[in-house]
Amino acid sequence: MITDLLHIKGFSYHGFSSGLKEDHQLDLVIIHSDHPSEAACLVKKIKNSEPLEIVERQFENHKIQTVVINSSNSNTNTGELGTQSVHKEIQRAALTFQANEAHVAALNTGAIKENFPITEVLNGISFAMGQLKSTSESSDTTARALADDGISIKGYSAQMMLDKEVIRFGAIAQHITNQKIPIGTIVKVILTDLNIEGQILQDILNDIAFNDDSTQKKSNVNEVMMILASSKAKHKKITQKTGDIFDQASAKIRELYHMLLYHT
């Protein structure tokens, strides 16, 4: 059981079955915060993909409250129909979870397939209303919903002390196990209760990617790494890229980033 998302204040989550996989297996993830979280995202595209460009645009304001991720159908470059599907997911999630559309991100992950089952995904989002939790079971279903043919899931957790308070981090990351299956996009999600401005969080991710040659490794899939920070921790808010608190937080994020990079 993967319980690494447990105990991170401000988030609820769950994995659901919307019918994309056989035998009612879990295929849809919803992650929600009780208010718009500070957010950062890195997207690596191997080719132009409007759905992933929408993801990047949604993170530009560094505020995300709801994330929708379906597995089993990546469909990363489907033209106008793909673009419309992502917008419909965002609209449905915003309506279902009472979030601003500007604070919703939708991602498609898994094997590349021809047709995107938008009706099933939209119905799954609506079905999820009122069912999100922050329990060991919901952490595990969230992870299992991201697993797919050729993709396994690993969970990671970490913590640190800032201003005498425990700050928690949890992550779920997809790992390709079968190179023969044409996987379109893999996703890594980090949740934390760190109290930090979204732009500073984005700067940390950008600095890691720019300064570490290992992040430039060749890949035949698109990759998305996102961090959501609920800012529920009571330490002094990190608003500048200076000082001991920033240095400690930056080092911990780098550590977890590398853990996801090297071990998945």
From TrEMBL:
InterPro entries: Arg_biosynth_ArgJ, ArgJ-like_dom_sf. GO terms for molecular function: L-glutamate N-acetyltransferase activity; L-glutamate N-acetyltransferase activity, acting on acetyl-L-ornithine as donor. GO terms for biological process: L-arginine biosynthetic process; ornithine biosynthetic process. Gene3D superfamilies: L-amino peptidase D-ALA esterase/amidase. Transmembrane segments: none annotated. It holds the Pfam family ArgJ. Coiled coil: none annotated. SUPFAM superfamilies: DmpA/ArgJ-like (SSF56266). Heterotetramer of two alpha and two beta chains. PANTHER family: ARGININE BIOSYNTHESIS BIFUNCTIONAL PROTEIN ARGJ (PTHR23100), ARGININE BIOSYNTHESIS BIFUNCTIONAL PROTEIN ARGJ, MITOCHONDRIAL (PTHR23100:SF0). This is Bifunctional ornithine acetyltransferase/N-acetylglutamate synthase.
